[in-house]
Amino acid sequence: MNKFPKVNNCKIAIIGLGYVGLPLAVLFSNKQKCLITNEQKEHKIIGFDINLSRLEELKKNHDRTNEVNSTDLQKADNLFFTNEIVNLYQAEVFIVTVPTPINNLNNPDLRAIKSATKTVASALKNKTYNNYPVIIYESTVYPGMIEEVCVPILESESGLKFNLDFYCGYSPERINPGDKEHRIENIIKITSGSSNECASFVDRLYASVINAGTYQANSIKVAESAKVIENIQRDLNVALVNELAIIFRKLKINIYEVLEAAGTKWNFLKFKPGLVGGHCIGVDPYYLTFKSKSCGYTPEVILAGRRLNNQMGSWIVKEVLKEMIINKFNISLSKVLIMGFTFKENCPDIRNTKVIDVADGLNEYSINYDIFDPLANKEEASKEYNVVLLDNIDDFSIYDAIIITVKHDAFYHYDWDSISKLNVILFDIKGFLPKDIDAIRL
User: Fold this and answer.
1) Which runs of E-coded beta strand occur in 117-216?
2) Cα 104 from chain centroid?
């Protein structure tokens, strides 16, 4: 008789080994005791990815995302990396962690998650065990997508019946790339399942490895909804602060001084202005607005926030040019340095980076520029955005303007006091520079 797998002893396949999947795979594979049963964990973890170069790096204990160090990878003895579907046949639990981006029309791009679902369905069709298979999705989706899009694929491709032959769960990822404090095991995990029994299993499975504990949502749709609004809330708050930055710049008031003063109130939310990119905050709102439009309602506030945040790159370029003109720089002969290309500080991720909007804005005015980012992968930047990143900066004096777009720790090592004394405009959009440095801040 079929039953759900044991939470301390099952075969788990992680589909997608990026910023989300790899840390999860390593967490499940570690040899600490199960937090639920207090028994030794005996999971067998199958890390599946279609990127062969990624797999080769991982097999050599190297993670290009810097989310997992080589020591932890080396210790993960029961973690097996593969790109062959046949190795998934023995899995009892499938956790899908592939990207869910948007297309050029800002609609959900579901190709990766649909492809991953078909891969899982192929494994289900050839399963070699007696327990109920459970497919858990962590990728960001719109409310209802698991049951409306993924489940039909699983059924049609495998020939099995939902909530009879297999079950589904949703546990949205809360990975914060580059954050060494808020790790996966230290963040409360939302869980859900397609039946009461499945929901209980999914919750216990994650609770067995998550130190911070879990929160079991009432349904998959509730969990899906919670994920998208987490980032919509942040997106709207940043949009508000970006609009304030625009207003206060016109009023010649330092936005950071205003925020610091307002921040002394106990319930003031401490958001800062800047470029809003990445694979979450700048993307997730469109998943909910897409679903909302399909129900006959076009969101106003959410899309207004998106529009404002999306125009920040071009606004920054215009403000830099104004300052250069005021300071009598010859625009046609000027050279600008963009410092930072990743979507956030201390992270190599360039997905959906909005720094490219600054570069594109400079291109529109035929302004010569360089980009420097010690964390970003130069080959990826060239392939994805057709830009060339500098290997290093030899001489700051050759630039007429420097735009600090990302607050990498590595940038603190430069002598900004000396740089500020050059004939150069420092435009700090991240509040990076000390107050005593002569710079233009949003």
Assistant:
1) 134-137, 167-170, 189-191, 214-216
2) 18
Q: Which domains does the chain have, with CATH numbers?
A: 11-218 (3.40.50.720), 233-441 (3.40.50.720)
Question: pLDDT class for 33, splitting at 50, 70, 90?
Answer: confident
61: left (phi over 0), alpha (psi -120 to 50) or beta: left
Q: How far apart are CA 100 and CA 104, in angstroms?
A: 13
Structure-block tokens of residue 179: 């954050």
Catalytic sites, residue numbers: 280
pLDDT in tens, 297-334: 999 999 999 999 999 999 999 999 999 999 999 998 99
AA identity, residue 155: E
The pLDDT of residue 382 is above 70: yes
Phi then psi dihedrals of residue 368, to 5 deg: -75, 135
Instruction: Round to whole Å and give the CA distance between 359 and 354.
Output: 9
Q: pLDDT, tens digit, for every residue of 384-422?
A: 999 999 999 989 999 999 999 999 999 999 999 999 999
Q: Which amino acid is at 339?
A: M
pTM of the model: 0.93
Spatial contact of 24 and 184, defined as CB atoms under 8 Å apart: yes
Count CB-CB contacts under 10 A for residue 157.
16
Backbone angle region of 67, left / alpha / beta, with phi > 0 → left and psi within -120 to 50 → alpha = alpha
The total of other beta-carbon atoms located within 10 Å of residue 352's CB is 18
Provide the terminal-to-terminal Cα distance of the chain, rounded to the nearest Å: 65
Backbone dihedral angles phi then psi of residue 426, each to the nearest 5 degrees? -95, 120
130, two tokens: 């007696």
